[in-house]
Amino acid sequence: MPGEYYHIYSRTMFNSPEFKDSKQASRLEQAFLISNSTKSSQIYQFLRNNPDATIQDAVKILNSGKKLVDILCYVIMPDHYHLLMREIKENGITNFIRSSNTSIAKYINIKNNRRGPLFESRFKSKHINSNAYLKHLSLYIHLNPLDFLINKEWRNHKLPNWSEAKNKLLNYRCSSLEYFLNSNSKNPILSGVKIITGQFDDEKEYENFLHDWSEENLGEIKDLCID
Questions:
Q1: Is 202 buried (19+), middle (13-18) or exposed (0-12) by CB count in 10 A?
Q2: Dihedrals phi, psi of 215, to nearest 5 degrees
């Protein structure tokens, strides 16, 4: 529903770690960018017909259309991805996910000489019904890579070395976290981020929000999970 917030989750078939390949993960990020427009079909056609075109050429067409959704934060894991989104247009989320998933599936199938669907048949969606849930979901999404970068003990508020964890998270490129911790960074995929960041005095306060959660019982992580 337009104006409402949702946690979106999509997993690959048989948990295949397709996005462990950094090029494929980057291509999914590109799909997120291009698919978020009423002109996305024209953009993909333009790119097919003009193999030498750049992403900057595509963005010019993208900006002539209207956004389908606001992407507040995201992470791409080896076999799935999470998005925190606000729907702008009716059926915007469904159209955005369909376009993104179709685009990356075609790319990976051609690149790896494979056939068949890439993702499970239906993405999962959970409505966000409170501001507290919204804030903590951004935390859950941004800390998610710790599952394999360190271990899953962060989910139990047992993260002994925040400095190490932070460095690993910031070196993990397929995430929106850098934008939240560095106001000078750029990420054209994101919009509406101030809905979250505006609730913190600065980047350091948001970092403390992540750090404190990893050590204190501020809520059950299972309440945020849809995987």
A1: exposed
A2: -120, -15
Q: How many CB atoms lie within 10 A of CB 142?
A: 25
Using the structure block, give the residue that is written with the tokens 């507290």: 132
How far apart, in Å, do the first and last CA atoms of the chain sit?
A: 22
> Which residue in this structure is represented by tokens 């948990």?
15
| In contact, 193 and 134? CB cutoff 8 Å | no
The phi-psi region of residue 144 (left if phi > 0; otherwise alpha if psi is between -120 and 50; otherwise beta) is: alpha
- Are 104 and 27 a contacting pair, CB within 8 Å? yes
Please, what is the Cα angle at 125 between 122 and 128, to 5 degrees?
175
- The helix or strand, by DSSP H or E, that contains position 73, with its residue range, turns out to be strand 69-76
* Residue of 200, 160, 150, 164 lying closest to 180 (CA atoms): 200
Q: Which domains does the chain have, with CATH numbers?
A: 5-126 (3.30.70.1290), 130-223 (no CATH)
Counting as low any pLDDT under 50, the low residues of the chain are: 217-218
The structure's pTM equals 0.90
- 62-72 confidence digits (pLDDT tens): 888 899 999 99
Which H or E run contains 127? strand 124-128
pLDDT reported for residue 225: 57
